[in-house]
């Protein structure tokens, strides 16, 4: 009954009296608040009045093994009532203009859906906060542990949530909201919102522009904190003490050697006799001399543009890494002077337009001074104007000895498409295209760096 009501409300805005009255009877019979059936009540408001429900919502939709085939019917009905509330609030978006308050409410409800799936709020839409076991959620409870396997979700729910959020942002009078400091303060930075801000930044001024920049800065800092942790894990060499240190002079620990052999000091001869040498454990060099990041800034690659400028800035802050950043559409822009600051970099980009990677290659090739010590990361959907010419130059870079990593999309949601012509040729070349979450690129760089 509860699920039939959910489907009816999702596909038809009109109430079905019979389903509503029957569902109300079910909810009251199992001791849950009738507010669960009110589509105008946010999940936050229900939890504030009934805080005991917060713990039930956390991990509500994660799969649990059944014991001996037994199914607790009462618990299943309760589960259906709570799941219906979260799903209805997230997926039954109403038409018309969206206010800042409505967007904030939807984002909070989407956060509860993510928690129900065993994730942290914002994680499926491109998490803005680091995962920490036992970390506090909106009501003081937390979702910790490893990221759950959501592979059985059809379709992938992250891209769908991002799509709904993007539609809400597009239906909001963003310029009016940004011009009002009170309304602007209610906005929560997200990829969909940042995309709109970057597209519209040239039409903003005064208070609206200042608020837009503040939102972009917040998002950059929050995503940067997450990526920085991933990069540090990938690039900091760990010492494996199960392996003896290499016995070469540069690894000799002179202070420890002297200290351990002091018992062999001869006062008469004023000599120290050393019967054992001690060596330092050293981690392998894990960073290349030069990292060249080329990003397609055409309209279809906004998510990748934002993520990769942040990623480039993190690598730019590592010792002994010379980072170069190039953005292109039909023209190429060398953003290397601002690579350390993703906020300034994003403000200098101009999203949209066509795609001609040959102009970016003309800037990138002269930067490959020592191929064996260079990695080139090229992020694009590879729908190119001069495809054969661009691929030939990429193949030349690969043959030169440089590490060439083609990336189809570096998104928070995992959604993206790649030109199949390029995909097949990269595969034949031995440099298959990476597509999906930005963690895949970090993992690939880790493989190269170590």
From TrEMBL:
InterPro entries: Uncharacterised_CoxE (IPR008912), vWFA_dom_sf (IPR036465). Residues 127-145 have a biased composition (Gly residues). It comes from the Bacteria. Coiled coil: none annotated. Residues 123-147 are annotated as: Disordered. This is VWA domain-containing protein. It comes from Streptomyces tagetis.
């Amino acid at each position: 009954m509860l699920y039939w009501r959910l489907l009816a409300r999702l596909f038809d805005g009109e109430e079905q009296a019979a389903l509503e009255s029957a569902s109300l009877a079910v909810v009251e019979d199992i001791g849950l608040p009738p507010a669960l059936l009110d589509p105008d009540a946010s999940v936050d408001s229900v939890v504030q009045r009934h805080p005991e429900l917060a713990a039930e919502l956390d991990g509500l939709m994660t799969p649990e093994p059944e014991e001996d085939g037994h199914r607790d019917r009462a618990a299943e009905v309760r589960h259906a009532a709570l799941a219906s509330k979260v799903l209805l609030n997230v997926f039954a978006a109403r038409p018309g203009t969206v206010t800042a308050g409505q967007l904030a409410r939807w984002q909070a409800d989407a956060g509860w859906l993510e928690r129900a799936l065993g994730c942290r709020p914002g994680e499926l839409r491109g998490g803005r906060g680091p995962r920490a076991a036992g970390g506090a959620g909106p009501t003081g409870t937390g979702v910790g542990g490893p990221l759950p396997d959501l592979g059985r979700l059809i379709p992938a729910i992250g891209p769908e949530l991002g799509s709904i959020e993007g539609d809400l942002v597009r239906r909001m009078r963003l310029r009016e909201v940004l011009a009002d400091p009170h309304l602007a303060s209610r906005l929560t930075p997200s990829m969909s919102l940042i995309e709109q801000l970057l597209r519209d930044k040239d039409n903003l001024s005064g208070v609206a522009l200042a608020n837009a920049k503040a939102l972009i800065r917040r998002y950059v800092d929050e995503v940067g904190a997450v990526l920085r942790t991933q990069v540090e894990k990938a690039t900091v060499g760990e010492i494996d003490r199960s392996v003896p240190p290499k016995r070469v002079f540069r690894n000799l620990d002179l202070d420890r050697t002297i200290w351990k052999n002091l018992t062999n000091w001869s006062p008469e001869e004023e000599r120290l006799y050393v019967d054992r040498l001690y060596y330092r454990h050293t981690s392998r060099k894990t960073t290349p001399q030069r990292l060249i990041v080329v990003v397609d800034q055409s309209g279809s690659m906004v998510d990748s543009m934002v993520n990769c400028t942040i990623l480039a800035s993190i690598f730019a802050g590592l010792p002994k890494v010379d980072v170069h950043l190039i953005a292109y559409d039909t023209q190429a822009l060398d953003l290397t002077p601002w690579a350390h600051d993703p906020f300034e970099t994003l403000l200098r980009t101009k999203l949209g337009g066509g795609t001609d990677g040959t102009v970016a290659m003309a800037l990138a090739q002269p930067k490959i001074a020592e191929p064996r010590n260079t990695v080139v990361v090229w992020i694009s959907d590879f729908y190119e104007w001069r495809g054969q010419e661009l691929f030939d130059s990429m193949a030349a870079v690969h043959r030169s000895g440089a590490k060439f990593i083609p990336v189809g999309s570096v998104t928070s949601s995992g959604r993206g498409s790649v030109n199949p012509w390029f995909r097949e040729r990269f595969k034949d070349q031995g440099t298959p295209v990476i597509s999906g979450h930005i963690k895949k690129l970090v993992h690939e760089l880790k493989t190269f760096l170590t």
